[in-house]
Structure formats: C-alpha cells, structure tokens
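User: What would this chain look like folded?
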Amino acid sequence: MPPVSDNALRRLDLPVMRRLEGLLQGDHRSAARGDGLDLADLREYQLHDDVRRMDWNATARLGAAHVRDYIEDREIAVWLLLDMSPSMTFAGVSISKHAVLTEFTTLMCRLLLGRGNRAGVMIFRDRIERTIPARGGRRQLLAILNAVAGAHAGGRAGATDLKQVLTDAAAVIRRRALVFLVSDFISPPGWEQALVPLAMRHDVIAVRLTDPLETRLPDLGFMTFQDAETGEQLFVDTHDRAFRDRFAAAAGARDARLRAAFEKAGVDVVELATEDDVMDALMRFSQMRKASLRRSA
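Assistant: Here's the prediction, encoded as structure tokens.
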C-alpha cells in the first residue's frame, strides 16, 4: 500500500467526515463527568470510585467519605492497540480482518485528531512491536496511517500473547485515556485478567473483528485448515453435519466467554465483521455511547 499523502487525506474528508463529525467529540463541553479541572459535584464515596478523587477536607468535615466529580475535558488522549498477528490476514467471504482494521483506524484517527485531541498507536503481533507516542495534528495522523499501512499483518508464526500486550500497554499509558483495543481476540486464555486493571484506569473500548466463516462452516467436502497463529494443520470433512454443528457450538461458546470477559471488565464492545460497513457500525456505536454517557451523567 502506497504512503498516505496529505492530498489523499483531504479527499477523504468530504465524503466521510461529514457523516461522522461530532459523534464522539462535540463542539461544546460534555454533560458527562470525567477528567477535568472544573468541579461539577461533591458526593459520597461509592465502591467503584477512584480514591485519588477523594476530598479529605469534606470527608473530615461531614464524617463520611466524599469524592469530587469534575466536568469532562473535551480534549482526550486516544490510544489504538492494533493487532497485526497472522490470524488477521484471514479473508473468508469478503475482505480480510486486517483491511477492516485499517479502515477503522483511518476513520477513528481522522475523527479524533480533527478535534484537536492527541492519538497514539501500539502495533502488536505476539508482543508490542512499535509504539507511536500520543500527539496531535495532521502530521501525526499521516504518521499513524503510514505506520498502519506499512505494518502488514502476518509475519512470523506464534500465538498472540494478549496478556503481555495489555500489561505492557498499561505500563506505557500513564494518564487516563480512551483506549481502542482492535483485535480478533484469538489468544491463549489468561488475558482477561490483564484487561480488568487497564479498564479500571482507562476508558477501554474493545473492537472485535470477525469473519462469518469463523462461526459457521459451509459444506465444501474434505478440506485442510491451518491455524495462522501456530501453523498447526487439520484435515476435516465439512460434509459431516455433526462436525459443522460442533464447530458452530465451539464458536458460540467462545463468543459467550468473550462477552462475559468484556462485561466483567466493564468494557464496551464494537462488533465488526468483514462484511459490515465500518462507517455505519461506528455511527451506531457512537449513538449508543452518547446515550450511555447521558445515563451516567
């Protein structure tokens, strides 16, 4: 893929950004409570509250633990954790998951950086291989898009270690941020525990990339499947209805485990299949986030 130029970016602005403009970052101060400098409220401490917001003077004066709520800042730091592991090259009925990741990153960076926010990227396979520190401006947008375009999915075989990736990301991202974890979440178990502390400190959104053939197999006869992460091969008979049913049941069980892990960590999820329209999915999710923030406020 050739480098992304400034002229190409301007051509993208007109048809794309008019639909997305204002969906995640408004022109006015948010009604939601968050990280900022302006005090919005003083209330009693609850179990989920950050102890760093404790108002010790009010606590001593009122005889009960109280915390401060602040008006949310419009400017936010955004981090995108991008999965470039071999499983992202899978392309079934449509385009590859890597192509969807590239489109999502382009739209999200253009939207957020256009509002004066700062964005950074971590590209990983079995571990984090490249980090672009969070900065703002058009140069940063071009740097991110060219880094993503140049980081081809695949490479050496090896299972993605999401646990190590999340642990390393938590050590790098010190200040509270909006974190997009863009992956198919094909990884050995155990990463769910590393997601919880990251989500407690940051606003984490899981962008799960899927392909329809990962959940249902067509009847195509004898076929050889290869695990893109480990290289392991398996010869199967897709004529066998019982096998197809077991495959669908295993995929359903994995989906249930992922949903439970995200719910436990308090992480919002964007489901993106390779046959979906990325822009429409982002618009639906943005409206859902707005409604969620209004309820929280």
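DSSP finds eight helices and ten strands in the chain. If you want, I can go into more detail on any region.
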